[in-house]
Specification:
Layout (H helix, E strand, L loop, with lengths): L5 E3 L16 E3 L9 H13 L10 E10 L2 E11 L6 E3 L2 E14 L3 E14 L2 H5 L2 E10 L2 E11 L5 E10 L8 E2 L3 E8 L11 E2 L2 E5 L4 E3 L3 E9 L27 E9 L2 E5 L3 E3 L9 E9 L6 E11 L4 E3 L2 E7 L1
Parallel strand pairs: 15-23
Antiparallel strand pairs: 1-2, 3-4, 4-8, 5-6, 6-7, 6-9, 9-10, 11-16, 12-14, 12-16, 13-14, 16-20, 17-18, 17-19, 17-21, 21-22, 21-23
Length: 332
């Protein structure tokens, strides 16, 4: 047993003319099951600093940014582990497992500007359901515009197996681009947002939180939820207003903003679906000077297969536009 304990050694012979010299014992090796908290913490630190990634557990992640003010951005991060990678222990009528998650955010790949350390307890009624799905951990960082390197380590705490995921993230300075918009988040799930505030988390609203779909894999019985924000949309020109003689001239009214969006699905060069345009004429998230769009698209009318999903965003007053797109898979 590799429990790290001291093993005593005693050697005896039947010859009195011999003098014995031997060690009093030795310390057994220690496996993960018998390691202490300090050793486990040190293991995570060493893995974060290692140039070679751990690959015993599959890990992948996705990110999305939203502007908080001119110099700060909310970076949402979703870390995903396939449920089939997690060994559960049965306890009464529930199956339990624990994951340790650690991470660092490096600016320009050198200077640490963010870190993550958390223990995630999983308790489910049916392990078989989890094994066919993913386990997702969502977190966030507040960062300035710039280039960042993110590294995350996930360890399951039954056998100590670990997995690593690294990615580079560019947060743009939206003051330098014509159309100022956030990332577009794709999702198929909303969950209760217990105690979370939309002022600090753009994915929270009406007591629910949008869960990003990192894999961009959907089924036909699901809905595709899309959410994004457009900042500092242009307003129309002021129009002159008449005034009676000897009375102060009223302040000229300002035409409203006009931001349009729609979604289309393509297979190759063929457009197979396009939603009706949504038109926004006012800012609906004033704390971020943002026009927030939330779209809900049922997928049952689309055949299984790969699609290019394109979101059309047009600031009609300023004449600026953007067309972000992704590949997504729709399964039966």
């Amino acid at each position: 047993m590799k429990d790290g304990r001291f093993r005593h050694i005693k050697v005896q012979v039947n010859r009195p003319d011999l003098k014995l010299e031997y060690r009093a014992g030795y310390y057994a090796g220690r496996d993960f099951e018998h390691s202490g908290r300090a050793d486990r913490d040190q293991q995570l630190k060493e893995e974060l600093a290692s140039d070679l990634p751990a690959t015993d557990v599959a890990v992948y992640a996705g990110t999305a940014y939203f502007r908080r003010d001119d110099s700060h951005y909310f970076l949402a991060v979703s870390i995903v582990v396939p449920g089939s990678q997690i060994p559960f222990l049965q306890d009464k009528d529930r199956d339990n497992a624990t994951l340790d998650v650690a991470g660092v955010v490096l600016e320009s790949g050198k200077f640490q500007v963010g870190q993550l350390r958390d223990a995630v307890k999983l308790a489910v009624d049916a392990t078989q359901q989890v094994r066919r799905k993913n386990v997702q951990y969502n977190t966030s960082f507040v960062l300035a515009p710039g280039s960042y390197h993110l590294k995350f380590v996930v360890r399951e705490n039954r056998t100590g197996r670990m997995g690593t995921f690294e990615t580079d993230v560019q947060i743009p300075d939206l003051r330098k681009v014509p159309l100022r918009s956030s990332s577009v988040v794709l999702s198929s799930l909303r969950v209760p947002a217990a105690g979370k505030n939309k002022a600090t988390n753009p994915l929270v609203g009406d007591q629910t939180e949008l869960v990003p779909n990192v894999t961009h894999v959907f089924t036909r019985d699901q809905h595709l939820y899309l959410q994004f924000e457009v900042y500092d949309a242009a307003k129309g020109k002021t129009s002159a207003a008449g005034a009676a003689p000897d009375t102060p001239a009223p302040k000229p009214p300002t035409e409203p903003i006009r931001v349009l969006t729609s979604v289309q699905f393509m297979q190759g060069d063929v457009k197979v679906y396009e939603s009706k345009p949504l038109i926004a004429t006012e800012v609906n998230v004033p704390q971020r000077k943002a026009v927030e769009f939330q779209l809900d698209l049922p997928l049952q009318s689309l055949r299984p297969g790969y699609y290019t999903c394109q979101v059309n965003i047009i600031d009609d007053v300023a004449g600026n536009y953007a067309f972000p797109r992704w590949v997504m898979l729709i399964k039966e």
